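Annex B. Sample input.
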Amino acid sequence: MKKVSFRIRKTYFDQIVAGTKLFELRNYTPFWIKRLLWDPPNIAVFVCGSKKHRRWIKKIRVGKPIEFLGRELSKQGKQDITTELCIATYLGKQVIKAEQKTLEME
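Annex B, continued. Sample output.
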């Protein structure tokens, strides 16, 4: 299992834990292209302070932010997403505790 970590703000972390945030956007840069597109991961690990939450990755797509959001970026979004294109990581179900233990032993 290949994992990728995302450091995120508490607001977004809470939405992901609740299952209301269905994808995570990242800049289309060599850093994220290498981590998300060259050898796509199976699991997204979201980190907020000392808290972690894991979700299965359903798919990864490249496009303009408006295509994923259905609206323009917010003021904060414009500070976070600074490239014309972005990478959207679509999230699946939460990785359950038994699966987490298995993953930690790998």
